[in-house]
Every structure is written in C-alpha cells, then in structure tokens.
Design brief:
The complex is a heterodimer of chains A (about 220) and B (about 350). Chain A is α/β, with parallel strands linked by helices and about 220 residues long. Chain A is built from nine helices and five strands; from the N terminus they run ααααβαβαβαβαβα. Chain A folds into two domains: about 80 residues, Methyltransferase, Methionine Synthase (B12-binding Domains), Chain A, domain 1, CATH 1.10.1240; about 120 residues, Rossmann fold (3-Layer(aba) Sandwich), CATH 3.40.50.280. In chain A, helix 1 runs antiparallel to helix 2, helix 2 runs parallel beside helix 4 and helix 4 runs parallel beside helix 5. By secondary structure, chain B is of the alpha/beta class. The longest helix of chain B is centred in the middle third of the chain and has 28 residues. Chain B contains twelve helices and nine strands. In chain B, helix 1 crosses helix 2, helix 2 runs antiparallel to helix 12 and helix 8 runs parallel beside helix 9. The radius of gyration of chain B is 20 Å and the shape is globular.
C-alpha cells in the first residue's frame, strides 16, 4: 500500500466509522515506513473534517458523528502510544474550556463540539451544563486555557455570555483568552455586540474557529 | 436615508433601510435554498416580499379571493387554559365558532401528550362528544407524540440523549425503537376513542420533536389511523424545518427520515395518508423579520409545489416567520401570512 492509499484508507475509516479500517491504515503505514503523524494529518484529520462538513449539511447525524469520533480517538491514542514509545513528545494543539452557561441545561450541542474538538487534537475541559461564569473563569485560569467556549440554547441565558466578557474585563484577564460563543439563538451579530472574539455556527465551524485561534497563537 | 419600522425575530422593533431589508431577504432566501438544496425565490418574489414588509399601514391583507382557512393546535384554548377563565373546552369551541368565526377548533388537554391522555381518554372523549353536539365547524382532537416521555424515569426506556453522547449508540437506538412502538400504541388508543366520539379529525402535533424516531412513530400512526378511519382526517404538524437524526438509520417509503426538509417531510406525510400537512419552521430571534419570513417562504413554496394535500403552515409564537413573543405583533403576523399565501401558495394557516 503506498502513501496515498494509506491516507485514503484512513479517511475512509472515519467516514465509515470503521475501527478495523483505521487499524489497517496504521498497520500499512508501519509496514511502508510512513510516519504515523502524517497518517493523522493527511488521513484521519482530513476524514474528520469531511465528516464535519457532512454533519453541518445534514447528510450524517449525531449517532454516526459520535461513532466516527470514537474511531478517531482510537486512532489518535494508537498514534500517541507510538510517538511515546519512540521517545517522542505529545504536543496538544492547545487548551479549550467549554461550558453551557448558567440557567441552561442543554448539553447535546455542546457535547458535539467537545467531541469534535478532541478529535481535532485539542485538549478539552468540558465543564458540563448550567455552569456559572465564576466556575468557567476559575477553570480557565487553573488549566491556562487558550480558548473559552460557551454555549446556550435559551435566549434568556445569552446574557451569561455577556457576563463572561464583562467579568474577564473586570478581572483584567480578558486578553489572556480567545472567547467563542455558540448555540441555536446565538449569532455572529450577538458575538460582535458583546465583544466575543469568535462565533461558532456548529460543531464543525467550532473546530475551524478553534484551529484558526490556535494557529494564530502557536503557528 | 429613510428607514422602515419592522421587527427582529424576538419581536423588538427595529428600523432598517430599504437596502438592509433587501439584503436580509436575499440572505434568508439563500440560506433556505442552500440548506434544503432547493431553488431560491425569484427576483420578482423577493421584490414582492419587500413590498409586503414595507407596505404602509399597520395591518396588511391579501385580496378577498385569496383568503385561506385556518386550523389550530392546542393553542386554541386561550380562555380556559391560558386565560384561566372557567369555561369548559366544549364551550370555548362554541365561542371560537360563533364569536371568532373560526374555521375549525382543536380540542386538546393541558398535558398535550398522547401518553398522558391515554389514561383519561374517556373523559376527553366525552368532552369531544359535547363539543360535536353543539358545534357546526370541524373539531379535531390534538396532542403531541412527545417520545421523550417514554424515557426513564417517566417511562421504561433508557434515555437516548444520555446514551448517545456516551457512545452507546446501539443501546440508544434500541431504546428509541422500543419507545416508538409504545408511542404508536398510545396514539392509536386515543384515536380509537376520538373516532367513536365523532371527532372530525385528529391532530398529530409537533411530530419529530424527539428526532427521527418520533417522526416515524407519527407517520406509522398516521398510516394506521387513515386506514382504520378514512373519514377522520389527520393533520400532521411538524416540529421543525429539519428532522433531527437521533437514530439516523430510519426510513419510510425507502427514504431516510433524518435530515428531511419541509418539502421532503411533506412527501412522506402525504404518503402516510394525512389530510393536512403543517410544516413548522423556527424563527431566529437575532435575525430580522425580513430574513425569517424570506427563509420560511422559500421552504414553503417548494413544499406546496411538491405535494398535493393541503399545506397549513404553523404560524405563531416563534414559527412561520412570526416573532418569538407570547403576544404576537399584528404587523408581523399579517405580513407573514401575506407572504405565505401569495408566494408560498399555502392552503391554510
């Protein structure tokens, strides 16, 4: 199997949520002497991007997304193992603290974002739902996060996203983080209005936005 | 530059220039066309939406010959339920017929779910009998399939909304499939009693609220009711513009249910034997009325072109281009209705 075929197989493994194919892609890469990190970047990650596009356009759905993300995580774990075994170091792309804001118990959309961010190689701290601004800031400070992402499905809870912006400014730590807002009633206009740095339309868009932030920060 | 008084999706008043309104119309149409992979509205149709939005006067109306009938869902109980005025629902139906000149009435219980109604269905059937004896207009009985009511601790099935994020996809699907069978049984049990009580129709409202399994349960119930009681019309109201794929693999008539847009939903609803299809398209609070109604009209036009059964669009709080407010602003309601009748070619509201 040549390099191109290995990458294609890795992409296929994600699109079809097939763990066996993912392992076969990695086995073939090992035999052909293709570095695993290349399979991750040119195969699995590409597959996840393509899958994210399909999810955004309503061609695949939540259960498939979760299964594909599991295949991705499994492949990523094996690649990490291989890197560590050969004396290498694992470098995460960056850290994101994610939460559904106080007063809102909707979890699924935020969960999708977390799953997709993890699959994209970002270290995610999922604080769950109904989370107070204080707790979001405390965790972000503790883990030295790069990104704070908040979600809400309820119009009346959107004010919590504004509260987060105000509180970060009040504490003089606003510039330490890039804030991303999302959720069904949230729009780019709202993000601009409250002074959030970015708006994420859905899980896939969230990954693109976070990648953009981290690429700008770390290159 | 002159500005027109209009509203945002949350009902707040805003002022937009002609150019801003035109841009929002174009953007709403483009959004709908791209998402559902359908044709956008023509330039002439977009111009007509602009004329309707910017028409002088608080209230606008279609020409008399274009008036359409209205059906309702459980929101038709403003006195006894929402207003807490002590009148029986059968009396409220009379008020709707004789004071409001309503075209039809939807008799429903406060706990608007087939599962919750099943234990009290005899009481509900008696209320239907009373209403039928007093009224001339069609009276339907309505409730929601509401498949979420079948999960633990309220029901016997595992909660798929917890199982899916945990990666337990097979268990989540099995739970949904089990809940679906029970949901169909409950809908049929209520339909049997209502048919015996002389109901003119049955309203399956907000179908698909729990995703594609909820939608399929409603389709299968529609199929059975329409075959068993061909004279009892079925109104099938959708939950949203897009059927959520909580299961993801279910099909009806060979078509995957998850991901269906209004015109595709309408096709399977018609196939199942419904008499009326009520597409529901949600309002985005942070976009203007122009954006919202243009988006909705694009989907509705495609739906009425695609299916033959009457299309009665859900127009109310937060749906059908209407603002997300409890007291609906009349200026928006009549303009939304005009767009849907003139361009969307709907049969009813």
């Amino acid at each position: 199997m040549d390099e191109k075929e290995v990458y294609s197989l890795a992409i296929e493994a994600i699109l079809e949520a097939d763990a066996d194919k993912a392992n076969k892609a990695l086995d073939s890469a090992k035999t052909a002497g293709i570095p695993f990190i290349n399979v991750l970047n040119n195969g699995f990650s590409k597959g996840m991007e393509e899958f994210g596009e399909m999810f955004s356009s309503g061609e695949v759905f939540l259960p498939q997304l979760i299964v594909s993300a599991k295949v991705m995580s499994g492949a990523a774990a094996r690649i990490e193992e291989d890197i560590l075994a050969s004396g290498g170091k694992i470098q995460k792309k960056g850290k994101a603290v994610i939460a559904t804001v106080a007063g809102d118990v909707h979890d699924i959309g935020k969960g999708i974002v977390c799953t997709m961010l993890r699959a994209a190689g970002i270290e995610v701290y999922d604080l769950g739902r109904d989370v107070q601004v204080d707790a979001i800031i405390a965790k972000s400070e503790e883990v030295e996060a790069d990104i704070i992402g908040t979600s809400t499905l309820l119009t009346h809870c959107m004010a919590e996203q504004l509260k987060l912006e105000d509180e970060l400014k009040k504490r003089g730590i606003r510039d330490k983080y890039r804030t991303v807002v999302g959720g069904a009633p949230v729009t780019r206009k709202w993000a601009n209005k409250i002074g959030a740095d970015y708006y994420g339309n859905d899980g896939n868009d969230g990954v693109k936005v976070c990648n953009e932030i981290l690429n700008k920060k770390y290159g | 530059m002159d500005k027109y008084k209009t509203r945002m999706g949350d009902g707040s008043i805003c002022y937009q220039t002609a150019q801003e309104i035109r841009e929002d119309i174009e953007s709403g149409v483009a959004y709908a066309a791209k998402k559902a992979k359908i044709e956008p509205l023509t330039k002439e149709e977009q111009d007509r939406i602009f004329e309707i939005i910017t028409a002088p006067g608080y209230i606008t109306s279609v020409d008399v010959e274009k008036l359409v009938v209205s059906t309702t869902d459980c929101g038709a109980a403003p006195f006894c339920r929402e207003g807490a005025i002590p009148v029986k629902r059968s009396v409220e139906a009379l008020i709707h017929e004789r004071a409001f000149c309503s075209d039809s009435y939807d008799l429903g219980f406060t706990e608007y779910t087939y599962k919750a109604i099943k234990p009290i269905v005899r009481y509900e059937a008696q209320e239907m009998r009373n209403a039928q004896q007093q009224n001339v207009m069609p009276i339907l009985y309505g409730a929601m399939p509401n498949m979420g009511f079948y999960t633990q601790p309220d029901g016997m099935f595992e909660n798929w909304s917890e199982l899916i994020p945990a990666g337990e996809i097979d268990r989540a699907r099995a739970a949904q499939e089990g809940a679906m069978e029970n949901c169909i049984k409950d809908i049929l049990a209520v339909a049997d009693e209502m048919a015996a009580a002389g109901a003119d129709g049955i309203n399956l409202d907000t179908c698909g609220a729990s995703g594609d399994t909820d939608f399929l349960a409603s389709l299968r119930a529609t199929e059975e009711i329409s075959q068993k009681y061909p004279n009892m019309g079925i109104m099938f109201g959708a939950a949203g513009e897009f059927v959520l794929g909580m299961h993801g693999k279910l099909t009806y008539d060979g078509k995957r249910i998850a991901g269906m847009w209004p015109h595709q939903q309408g096709e399977v609803v018609q196939k199942a034997g419904a008499a009326i299809y009520g597409p529901a398209m949600n309002t985005n609070c942070n976009e203007s009325f122009a954006w919202n109604i243009s988006r909705v009209t694009t989907w509705v036009k495609k739906t009425t072109e695609t299916i033959d059964i009457p299309v009665h669009v859900n127009c109310g709080m937060g749906v059908g281009g209407i603002c997300m407010t409890e007291m609906l602003p009349v200026d928006v309601v009549c303009r939304a209705d005009m767009c849907l009748i003139e361009i969307g070619k709907i049969d009813g509201l």
